[in-house]
């Protein structure tokens, strides 16, 4: 065993601040951006490995994630191990100055294991057992799977504890990507245990689940099942609890791997790659983040008009999930993926721009899936840093150029994203709750509404943080909380205190409606927020897919309307319905409190194009203005990172045309050189300007005009 360790000497827990991938304890190199990819050398003959490291150096690669899907290679049979190839790969990387984020290799169990123990395979809600043959075919709650997986983790940790290349552990891979919901008997048992600890007694569970409805009363714990395929709508609280449980079950698995790693290698930081992106909603990441030493995220852009907004939104949310600390972009793509209906290549400039938007939002590492494009297998049409065409390619040249850009941005590493004055609340529980069956409308998409608000902030050129419901809101002048559907009393109290303390809140249709058990707050909607908003709604007015309504401010609403009555004299109607069932009634309201705060309500879906018209005046009312020159607002995304002495202004051209800044101050760390006192940001270009902390690169007068 080449890399032995002394467990007894290392058992003392290292503080999290010392477990950082940028600074392994033995490393006194200056901090710089980590740059690299998933590296899967087992797909290639040995001769290619040497060429790989040569090209990695050429591209400025500093770190690779290794062994993510290597279980079958490392343990070809229950009692046979083969580490020789991985030893060689790690040595080769280390000899070339490339660090390793080493996977625990548990993501895809080998065929010998599923043959020996088919009871580890997940079961769908219709009762079908998933087969081996792809990846992640394991039950999060299977004790058998856990035994085998933890044995592998222990073996890996023991073997590589002292390997100098290893700077971080990468637990499994995208936990829950394919196996978040398992309805097997293992899951049923674990679900009952979870419910026991949540509710304590069956009486309490029966109350929370409202089992007097449809004769669902439970007399014994063993009578409870996961929400498997049923004759009609399954109990909604059971469904919500199953989502909570499923996220917790995987979190528990994550902790089990982590505990093995921390016991054996307490000085090596541990991460796992989240998927804060698109419609991936099964894992409640804000609730997972504390379990690991640093947050990593995978992000794949979705084509469409909000492609870049969604990327930025995900990065901003990842920043807040990471608690404001630097985070690791573990995967994104150099160009096309292979799993969308049509997989479009990235256009010129997008590879760098996409990466730098993540950096702008606090990433200190930029990695791709994967290093070398596979020649075979399910992902052979997925782009990589070295494409099928080889290094003589636009993609590889763009990859190497990004390596140089990241090097130029070295001073930015370790700085943190400066908090904005406005926040957008994003809530997993509301996301889960509003998209179940048996709702007023099946057309409501929680993330889309939140994204539309984010797009509106971008259109206005106003920086915004994306925060969760547990965030401290007191530092924000303005808080938007669209479709905040699940509002326990404690949250209602915090929002109330925020507004009474002078804060400005905006929320929307279908907010405040239920408590944590999915029981309606009675007395009229928006339930828990009714008094704060000074309105009362007796009935929802959802709209059919092809119906829209006009508002008297020229905007058009879709998806939803509400029959609003005003209940407080401090409420102003900002817009009324002009047609439809609510014609003449309020559509957008704002209650101004004597204390100085306000609470606004938007009762219909205005979309990314309509929302700026409503959001702009609300922001001005809260005193929140764009920090960008007037002429570039909407065309440029602004994000600021700061350290003790400097501020780094990231200016991202969101358009396909050049954008002109008439005058800028500050040192350009990366991007176009200033000319004549101004700066022309090319199509899809990014500039990073360094100024003294507290200063602005835009000479006085431009920003507030
Ligand atoms: C991720 C995964 C990678 C690769 C990539 C392709 O979900 O972690 O292994 O499959 O997607 O986009």
User: pLDDT average, as an integer?
Assistant: 94
Q: What is the molecular shape?
A: globular
According to CATH, the fold-level topology of the largest domain is: TIM Barrel
Say which CATH homologous superfamily of the largest domain is assigned. Answer: Glycosidases
Please give the order of strands in the largest beta sheet: 5-4-3-2-1-9-8-7-6
Considering DSSP H and I runs of 4 or more, what fraction of the residues is helical?
25-40%
Which CATH class of the largest domain? Alpha Beta
Structural class: alpha/beta
What is the count of DSSP helices, taking H or I runs of 4+ residues?
Answer: 18
As for the number of domains, it is: 4
Number of strands: 27
Task: State the low-pLDDT regions, or none.
Answer: 1-18, 701-705
Distance between the termini: 68 Å
Radius of gyration, in angstroms, nearest whole number: 26 Å
> Could you say what the CATH architecture of the largest domain is?
Alpha-Beta Barrel
Sheet with most strands: 9 strands, parallel
Bound molecules: beta-D-galactopyranose
Strand content: 15-25%
Offer a few descriptive terms.
TIM Barrel, Rossmann fold, globular, 27 strands, 705 residues, seven-stranded mixed sheet, 18 helices, 17% strand, single chain, binds beta-D-galactopyranose, 29% helix, disordered C terminus, 4 domains, alpha/beta, nine-stranded parallel sheet
């Amino acid at each position: 065993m080449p890399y032995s360790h002394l467990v007894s000497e290392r058992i003392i827990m290292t503080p999290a601040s010392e477990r950082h991938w940028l600074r392994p304890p033995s490393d006194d190199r200056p901090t710089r951006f980590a740059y690299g990819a998933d590296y899967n050398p087992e797909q290639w003959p040995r001769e290619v490995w040497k060429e790989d490291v040569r090209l990695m150096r050429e591209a400025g690669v500093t770190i690779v994630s290794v062994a993510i899907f290597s279980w079958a290679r490392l343990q070809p049979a229950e009692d046979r191990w083969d580490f020789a190839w991985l030893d060689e790969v790690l040595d080769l990387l280390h000899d070339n100055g490339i660090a390793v984020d080493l996977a625990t290799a548990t993501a895809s169990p080998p065929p010998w294991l599923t043959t020996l123990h088919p009871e580890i395979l997940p079961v769908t809600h219709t009762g079908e057992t998933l087969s081996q043959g792809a990846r992640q075919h394991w039950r999060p709650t299977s004790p058998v799977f856990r035994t085998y997986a933890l044995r592998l983790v222990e073996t890996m940790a023991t073997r590589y504890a002292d390997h100098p290349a290893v700077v971080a552990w990468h637990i499994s891979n995208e936990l829950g990507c394919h196996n978040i919901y398992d309805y097997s008997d293992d899951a049923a048992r674990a679900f009952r245990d979870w419910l026991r600890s949540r509710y304590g007694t069956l009486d309490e569970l029966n109350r929370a689940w409202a089992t007097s409805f449809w004769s669902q009363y439970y007399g014994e714990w063993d009578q409870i099942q996961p929400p498997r395929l049923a004759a009609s709508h399954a109990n909604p609280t059971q469904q919500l609890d199953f989502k909570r449980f499923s996220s917790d079950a995987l979190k528990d698995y994550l902790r089990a791997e982590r505990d093995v790693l921390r016991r054996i290698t307490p000085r090596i930081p541990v991460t796992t790659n989240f998927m804060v992106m698109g419609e991936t909603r099964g894992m409640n990441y804000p609730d997972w983040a504390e379990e690991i030493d640093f947050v990593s995220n995978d992000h794949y852009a979705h084509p469409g008009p909000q492609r870049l907004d969604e990327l930025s939104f995900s990065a901003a949310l990842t920043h807040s999930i990471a608690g404001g600390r630097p985070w690791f972009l573990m995967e994104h793509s150099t160009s096309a993926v292979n799993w969308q209906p049509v997989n479009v290549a990235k256009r010129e400039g997008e590879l760098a721009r996409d990466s730098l938007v993540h950096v702008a939002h606090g990433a200190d590492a930029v990695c791709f899936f994967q290093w070398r494009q596979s020649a075979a297998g399910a992902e052979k049409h997925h782009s990589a840093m070295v494409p099928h065409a080889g290094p003589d390619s636009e993609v590889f040249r763009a990859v190497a150029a990004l390596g140089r850009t990241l090097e130029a941005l070295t001073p930015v590493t370790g700085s943190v994203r400066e908090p904005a004055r406005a926040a957008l609340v994003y809530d997993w529980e509301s996301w889960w709750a509003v998209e179940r069956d048996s709702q007023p409308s099946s057309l409501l998409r929680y993330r889309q509404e939140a994204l539309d608000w984010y797009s509106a902030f971008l259109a206005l050129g106003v920086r915004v943080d994306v925060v969760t419901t547990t965030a401290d809101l007191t530092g924000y002048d303005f808080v938007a909380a669209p479709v905040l559907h699940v509002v326990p009393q404690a949250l209602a109290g915090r929002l109330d205190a925020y507004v009474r303390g002078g804060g400005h809140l905006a929320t929307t249709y279908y907010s405040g409606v239920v408590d944590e058990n999915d029981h309606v707050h009675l007395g009229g909607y928006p339930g828990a927020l009714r008094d704060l908003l000074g309105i009362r709604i007796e009935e929802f007015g959802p709209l059919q897919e092809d119906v829209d309504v006009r508002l008297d401010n020229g905007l058009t609403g879709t998806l939803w309307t509400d029959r609003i009555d005003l209940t407080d004299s401090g409420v102003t109607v900002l817009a009324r319905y002009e047609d439809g069932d609510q014609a003449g009634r309020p559509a957008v309201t704002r209650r101004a409190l004597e204390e100085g705060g306000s609470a606004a309500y938007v009762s219909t879906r205005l979309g990314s194009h309509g929302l700026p018209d409503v959001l702009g005046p609300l922001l001005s009312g809260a005193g929140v203005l764009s920090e960008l020159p007037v002429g570039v607002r909407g065309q440029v995304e602004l994000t600021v990172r700061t350290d003790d002495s400097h501020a780094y202004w990231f200016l991202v051209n969101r358009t396909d045309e050049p954008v002109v800044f008439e005058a800028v101050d500050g040192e350009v760390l990366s991007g176009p050189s200033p000319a004549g006192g101004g700066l022309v940001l090319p199509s899809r270009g990014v500039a990073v300007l360094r100024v003294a902390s507290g200063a602005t690169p835009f000479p006085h007068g431009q920003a507030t005009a």
